[in-house]
Amino acid sequence: MITAIDNIGIAASDFARSVAFYQKLGFTKTFENEFGCMLAAGSARLFIFAAQQGGALPERRVFGLSNPPGFDHISFLVDDVDRTYEEIRGRGVEFESAPANQAWGARATTLRDPDGNNIRLLNWLPQ
Fold first, then answer.
1. Over the stretch 7-55, which tens digit does the pLDDT of each residue have?
2. Is the four-CA dihedral 92, 96, 102, 104 of positive or negative sign?
3. Do the Cβ atoms of 81 and 88 come closer than 8 Å?
4. Position 89 in a domain
5. Which H or E element spans position 97?
6. What is the average pLDDT across 77-92?
7. Between the chain's N and C termini, which has fewer beta carbons within 10 Å?
8. What is the count of structural domains for the chain?
């Protein structure tokens, strides 16, 4: 029986750049070897590793529901979206959108990692 997601693996075009990016989001290294690096923030864990295939990156996905099949985004739960947004922007990270209340029940902001993967930072609004 599945009880949780253990980690999300991210194949990075530039390993060091991606590790540095996720550290700016607040992740810390918990393990690193010749295969990659495990990063953690709260109960969220990412395994970053160097992509082994060259060539063009996949088509950039939009924020919304009109993407082709496949994983669409990663959402990270934060304690305060507005404060987290300001802290991370202060570390030089660019966002796609400022925090805003969403029709689907959360306050969220969006950004992309160095390889264009969609990321949301959110907290759920009271019902």
1. 999 988 899 999 999 999 999 999 999 999 999 999 999 999 998 876 5
2. negative
3. no
4. yes
5. strand 95-101
6. 97
7. N
8. 1
Whether pLDDT at 67 is above 70? no
Whole-number Å distance between alpha carbons of 41 and 9: 15
3-state helix, strand, coil in the chain (%, to 5): 15, 40, 45
The CATH number linked to 21 is: 3.10.180.10
E strands in 1-127: 8-12, 28-33, 36-41, 44-50, 73-77, 95-101, 106-112, 118-124
In a domain, 28, yes or no: yes
59 domain-assigned: no
User: In terms of residue numbers, what domain contains 90?
Assistant: 8-52+73-124
| 86: phi then psi, degrees, rounded to nearest 5 | -65, -40
Query: Per the confidence metrics, is the pTM higher than 0.85?
Result: yes
Task: Judge whether 65 lies within some domain.
Answer: no
